[in-house]
Amino acid sequence: xxxxxxxxxxxSLFIEKEEIQEAVKEVAREISEDLKDKNPLFLVVLNGAxxxxxxxxxxVEVDCNVSFVKLSSYAGTQTTSIxxxxxxxxxxxxxxxxxIIEDIVDTGITMDNxxxxxKHLEADDVQVATLxxxxxxxxxxxxxxxxxxxxxxxFIVGYGLDYDGYGRNHxxxxxxxx
Length: 178
Ligand code: IMP
Ligand code: MG
Known about the structure:
The protein is of the alpha/beta class. It has one domain (3-176): 3-Layer(aba) Sandwich (Rossmann fold), CATH 3.40.50.2020. The protein has three helices and ten strands. Strands 5-4-3-6-7-8 form a six-stranded mixed β-sheet. A four-stranded antiparallel β-sheet has the order 1-2-10-9. Helix 1 crosses helix 2 (50-57). The longest helix has 18 residues, at 17-34. It starts with a strand and ends with a strand. The structure holds inosinic acid and magnesium ion. Magnesium ion binds next to strand 6.
């Protein structure tokens, strides 16, 4: 099995690019069907979601806007409960259908925070589209409408996801070897 080293840790191949692309297309298909007449605003959560968003949006067939926010809650391989906003929202969300594009929902703290902010700004509807979801780690109540792939509670890298800033550029997803 293919293995890579990212900084001081070893990772083994977990989800191959073909499987990722199938999941991406399926999410895009669902979004295109649901949001045909909604003129959605897609909000991409940087840094992790940049590759997923770029692939997903090329398959989404609705009139839409795309914008970016930069959040950070991770330090190394551990999530922290403090979500920092590094680049803020520059779009009017009031009255709009907003779809947050996220790489992975882990504890759910980041998304919970963001959903609350968007509702506070009077978005009409707020949905989440995430490539990956770790149900065993999830601590929140909100529902996630669009999920690409559910995974166990292991630390992963690749396809936009990083370990300490490294590993985002791999087209496949790798899982940490403990
Ligand atoms: P949450 O707030 O715990 O749901 O964490 C969400 C953020 O943590 C995601 O947007 C990712 O950027 C990051 N994250 C969560 N799990 C992983 C992982 O396994 N590898 C890399 N980053 C992760
Ligand atoms: Mg992220």
